[in-house]
């Protein structure tokens, strides 16, 4: 990822929306057993799947973070990586809300499946049912957040798609519309569209999530409206935004970051404090949040999800397969 001179945890006041309370959302968050009491939810901007989004997503209490403070909404939605718009984390929010339409939105599912699917995201939300989960989120740039996501497990969609025995991997593709987002032309050294991939068993892991919202409301454009992947034990760049295609493949798919810099961004990219990035350590992370913008804490193996995912990599050399 690009190196910037300005310390990137510095969040100028002008980059943050004024906040407005949404009491019913605070209720969910309280129910989730996490302390969001001090935070509130910013006034909504253009968002994704609004028609299919439930009034109140159910909180899944199995997925909460109890050892970390939750990240306030204004940082989750005001400090973003979305290179299709800009590499400036504070400005993504502005560029992504200048007429980019994220509703209605179609997601295609294909490759090695019994039947190709063309899905309307609002219909998909209704069919799959939406739950809220709170996950740790660790960027490869060594900063982290704790985020409530609303969505459904990817495994539910995989079941619907019925992959054939040839399917070994899952490839994910982001939208590509040069008129809607200036980054495609500005950063034309990247192999657009943004793509990512998982092994099929990783994709079917209970943690792997398709998020259509955050903080109990539809996904803001800057966070990857209307539907994005969230893989909490991997570096954040694996959590690809604004999906238009999911394909089941026999071969390991080519992915944008791995193609751009294979020595820096491995296909697996599991959070691992013992494997440094060639240009920085991954042993600690900066916590993005109020009053503690530059706090550093130790990074946990698999971002704290070792219990749920270690078995996926049994016997594998995690240094070689970084
Ligand atoms: N997906 C797309 N399509 N484009 C991107 O630039 N950035 C990735 C990931 N998904 C990115 C993307 C990176 S580097 C991170 S850290 C997370 O999105 C950031 O998600 P957030 O902005 O919701 O925190």
Features:
322 residues, eight-stranded mixed beta sheet, alpha+beta, 21% strand, 9 helices, Sulfite Oxidase, Chain A, domain 2, binds ligand MTE
List the helices and strands and how they pair.
Layout: H1 23-31, E1 58-59, H2 73-76, H3 92-95, E2 106-111, E3 117-120, H4 121-128, E4 131-138, E5 143-153, H5 154-161, E6 169-174, H6 183-186, E7 195-199, H7 200-203, E8 209-214, E9 217-218, E10 228-230, E11 243-249, H8 256-260, E12 284-287, E13 295-298, H9 306-309
The structure holds ligand MTE.
Mean pLDDT: 89
Helix percentage range: 10-25%
Reported for the largest beta sheet, the result is: 8 strands, mixed
The span between the termini is: 17 Å
Q: Tally the beta strands.
A: 13
Name the overall outline. Answer: globular
What does this structure look like?
The structure is a single chain. The model is unreliable at 3-23 and 33-44 (pLDDT under 50). The protein is built from 9 helices and 13 strands. Helix content is 16%, strand content 21%. The two termini are 17 Å apart. The chain has 322 residues and is an alpha+beta fold. The chain has a single domain (13-313), classed as Oxidoreductase, molybdopterin-binding domain (Sulfite Oxidase, Chain A, domain 2, Alpha-Beta Complex). The structure holds ligand MTE. Residues 80-84, 139, 174, 194, 223-224, 236-237, 239-242 line the site of ligand MTE.
């Amino acid at each position: 990822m690009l190196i910037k001179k300005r310390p990137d945890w510095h969040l100028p006041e002008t980059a943050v929306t004024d906040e407005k309370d949404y009491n019913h959302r605070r209720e969910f968050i309280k129910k989730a057993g996490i302390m969001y009491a001090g935070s509130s939810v910013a006034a909504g901007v253009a968002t994704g799947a609004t028609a299919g989004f439930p009034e109140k997503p159910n909180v899944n209490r199995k997925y909460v973070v109890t050892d970390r403070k939750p990240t306030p909404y204004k940082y989750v939605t005001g400090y973003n990586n979305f290179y299709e718009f800009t590499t400036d984390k504070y400005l993504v929010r502005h560029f992504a809300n200048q007429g980019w339409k994220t509703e209605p939105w179609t997601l295609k599912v294909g490759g090695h499946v019994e039947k190709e699917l063309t899905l309307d995201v609002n219909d998909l939300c209704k069919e799959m049912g939406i739950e809220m989960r709170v996950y740790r989120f660790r960027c490869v740039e060594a900063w982290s957040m704790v985020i409530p996501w609303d969505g459904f497990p990817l495994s539910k969609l995989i079941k619907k798609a019925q992959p054939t025995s040839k399917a070994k991997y899952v490839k994910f593709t982001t939208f590509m519309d040069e008129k809607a987002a200036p980054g495609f032309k500005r950063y034309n050294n990247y192999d657009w569209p943004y793509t990512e991939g998982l092994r099929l068993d990783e994709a079917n892991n209970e943690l792997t999530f398709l998020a259509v919202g955050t903080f109990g409301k539809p996904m803001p454009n800057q966070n990857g409206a209307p539907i994005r992947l969230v893989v909490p034990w991997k570096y954040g760049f694996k959590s690809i935004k604004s999906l238009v295609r999911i394909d089941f493949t026999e071969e390991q798919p080519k992915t944008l970051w791995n193609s751009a810099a294979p020595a820096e961004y491995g296909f697996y990219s599991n959070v691992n404090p013992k494997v440094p990035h060639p240009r920085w350590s991954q042993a600690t992370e900066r916590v993005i949040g109020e009053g503690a913008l530059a706090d550093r804490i130790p990074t946990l193996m698999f971002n704290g999800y070792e219990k749920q995912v270690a078995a996926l990599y049994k016997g594998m050399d995690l240094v070689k397969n970084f």
